[in-house]
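Here is one such protein, fold included:

. . .
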Amino acid sequence: MSVTAAKGFVAAGTASGIKADGIPDMALVATEDHQPVAAAAVFTTNLAAAAPVQVSRTHLAATGGRAAAVILNAGNANAATGEAGRATAQGACDLVAAELRCESDQVLVCSTGLIGIPLDLWPFEKTVPALASELASTSNAANDAAEAILTTDTVRKEAVVVASGITVGGMAKGAAMLSPNMATMLAVLTTDAKVEHDELQGLLAAAMDNSFHRLTVDGCTSTNDTVIILASGKTDQVTDDTSVLSDLITRACADLAEQMACDAEGATKVVKVRVVGAANHADAAKAARRIAESNLVKCSFYGEDPYWGRVVSEAASAGAAFDIDKVSVGYGDFVVAVGGIEIDHDREALAEYMTQRRLEVTVDFKLGSGEWWLLTNDLTHAYVDENMGTS
C-alpha cells in the first residue's frame, strides 16, 4: 500500500493530458479527513529551484510545517518558467484546497519532467476534481499514485516499513539527475506516528545522510528535487523515544534510494563505492563521490573491466589526503592492488564477478578511520540515448 499504508492517508493517480497518449501523470496524496498534519520537507540545493519548490517552501513556512495534501505531476517540471510557472503551481494548490476544503497554503506541490517548458493550469483544472473524488486508502490507489509520478522510470518505486506499532510508507520517482547533498528526485512519505514538525524535520534531514544523499547516478542536481513527509498521529503507539521513527524513516528512504539506483537510466550495474581508512569522514566522502561520479570509472563498470588505475587516479584528485604508496583497491572480495601496485589475484574469478548486476568497489587509504559509501551506476549507450534531447 506504500504511501497509504500509514493510518490516516489516501491517494489517487490518473492521466491529466500533460503526457501524451493517456499515460498517468498526476497524483494526489492527502490526509483522510483533509485536515492538516505535521509536515516536513527537504528540497533541492539548485539555485534555479522550480516553481513548485518555491511555492511548497512558502507554504510550509506560512503554516509552521503543516499540510493536508500534496499534488504532483509528471511530464513537465514547471522549472525556469518565471511568474507564470509560480502562478500555475499556486493555482494547482488552490484547486486542491477547494476540493478538500482546506487552506491553499496547506497544500504542497511537486512537478517533474522537462525543464523550461510552460505548464498551463488547465490539466489541473480538468483533473483535480476527479482525483479528489477518487481518493482512497487502498493498495490500488497507492499504486496509481506511484505510477502517475514516473518520468523515465521503468517501474514504480514504493516502500513500507513497520515497527513498534508505527508505519512509514512512501513512493518516489527518479532515474537520473540524482546526486548527493540534496533531496534527490521526488518522494512523498507518510507515517502515523505522533510527532511535531520541528522533530519530524530533524528526523527527515538525518535520514537523508544514509539514503538519498548516498545516491549519485550522474552527478547532476535537478531543479525540482523534493522529499516530503506527512505525519497523521493516528497510531495507537505513544512514546517519547524517537529512535524507532528515525530508523523507520531512514529505512524507507534507503529502500526507495536503492530502487532508484536499480532503475537508473540505461544502467546495467548498481555499484557501491566504499572509501575506508581516509584521514577523516569528510575526506572519505569527497573521494567516494569523485570515484562514483567519474565517467571513466563508470564506463569501466559498463565494460566489466576492473580498471583499478582509474579508481586510484580519481581518488587521488579528490582533494583528500592521499598517499599512493599506501592505498589498496578491491572489487568485491578480490583485492587487486596494494600500496598503489597491482598484486596477483584470480583474474578469471574477478572477471566473472564483474558480470554481476551488483558490484562493490573498496578503496582503503590506510591513513585513518574515515569512511563513506555511495551508490552509483555504470555509464551506458542507453543513458546517452535517453538524454540527447527533449523529444
